[in-house]
Amino acid sequence: MGSAMTTAMRRHPSFVAGCGLVGLWLAAVLLSLAWTPYPPTEIDVPNRLLLPSAAHWLGTDSLGRDIASLLIVGARTSLLVGVAAVGLGALLGTAIGVLGAARRGWLDALLMRVADFGFAFPALLTALMLAALAGPGAATAVAAIAVFNTAVFARISRSAAGAVWSRDFVLAARACGRGRWQVTVDHVLPNIAAPLIVQATIQFAVAILAEAALSYLGLGVRPPQPSWGRMLNEAQEMMFQAPQLALYPGVAIALAVLGLNLVGDGLRDLLDPRLVRER
Amino acid sequence: MAGPLLQVRGLRVSLPSARGPVDAVRGIDLDLARGRTLGLIGESGCGKSMTALALMGLLPDAARASGSIRFDGQELVGLDDAAMCRLRGRRIAMVFQEPMTALDPLQPLWRTVSQPLRIHRGLDARSARAEAQRLLDRVQLPQAAQRLDARPHQLSGGQRQRVMIAAALACGPELLIADEPTTALDATLQREILALIGTLVTDSGMALLLISHDLDLMARSVERVMVMYGGTVVEEGPGAQVLAAPAHPYTRGLVGARPRLGAARGARLATIPGRVPALGDWPAGCPFADRCGWVVDACRAGMPAPVGVGVDRAARCIRLTSAHTPDSR
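The joint structure predicted for all components is written out below.
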């Protein structure tokens, strides 16, 4: 299995590249827990808007904060918001999807219409409504992205589970005396895991973008907590004096999203049972 | 033990369609005693698989069964799923047609085989594994001990069917329903698998309901056959007799349409004219009326009642009664 995996990876340079980008990002998160070049929120107005130098690798922003430190800590925010929002959404959505597939009938129809409803609202709109109700903040951003993800995962798991339910081995398991719920746990969930994992990676990328967008609009994480989206927001004010400020968080977001998408694409191929069988 | 193990009366299965509910099974009566074997024969679409699924309580969600299915005195029609789950795999087991798709591709063999034991007897993983090996040995899976952790795609079709049979036998059921268990297998394997089922049925004293469209296979495997057409049983009787001297025009057609080795070169294979009508398109009266060479107006008046055609035999054809005896056949 190990050697089969490495062969498959060699045939998939884009997957390896994606893993590299995601690895870099995770390394930044780990680093942020132990060390940053400067305290990320330390304001140093005399040294504002410095260009990259040996002291400040990526320069400083309009308040003199070290951009490299902000980026490293911002990676943590992206990761936390992404994990929480995708994790919650995937958990809740998958539960809804497999429940609908197992029960059918009116409950299924109701759940799927609710999912359609959730799907119709972009995360941004949900966040606006939640921010109006509960005030902006990291929790608002997580909740809004999670609601959107719940609908995405409900739909995907419902359709994938529906396909599994129509297969003979489910009927055979039922003929052995398995109840609907046990069939879901024993047979349906393992057989839909692959598409869900792929989707989770891609939704992760979407969540990072959404977090950046929400923070950029001031609906996400609150100052002084660093976030790539907030860095973009602040860079906008300095667009003409210091355009480089928008470049760094923009590139960070693009690389993280690119990495996750490459990983997702690669996983889709690597987890495809038809390809596994051919190996 | 009074009464037959399985007693079915007036079983109907209706399926929804664009034109409202249509009956796929239209009033089946069936008796099967402990340790006996019964075959259901018919073309695709005649309702035999629906009958099997109705007996298991595993009809598609939209399908409705009515009538009565009594298993060891207990009424199964309308029984809730939890109670049905306690019967399935323990007292009634089923072997499916397609061994390629009826095994979960992600589960190792020992888990599939021991599933009924874990459900109904609460076996732990360790003893379930040991039992699985014993069962796989019993169905003569080669190198069973080394293959407990194999996945279905590592087995051939015949081996997978053995695994399915092992799982069905796990709890020592009183009734085994085998829905075309050999259709997906090649000819030599068909005989092996049927012989295996035959031996296991004899050894364990369970009753067998075998479903197939293969007449020769039926004649060798079961004591009694029921020929289905259009959702009803058109003829029933002891297997060898029905196939040696079919009474109903449909059974005659089926028997006549068997390909034979040694037939004269260039001889055309006999066929039954027409095709099985789509579900719900049954003609009024006898379902076979549109394809039958003996048809008279009276055939379309109503569903023919079963007529005795010998010891322990019956056929649903009015032309077999004295009033309508066919002129020259």
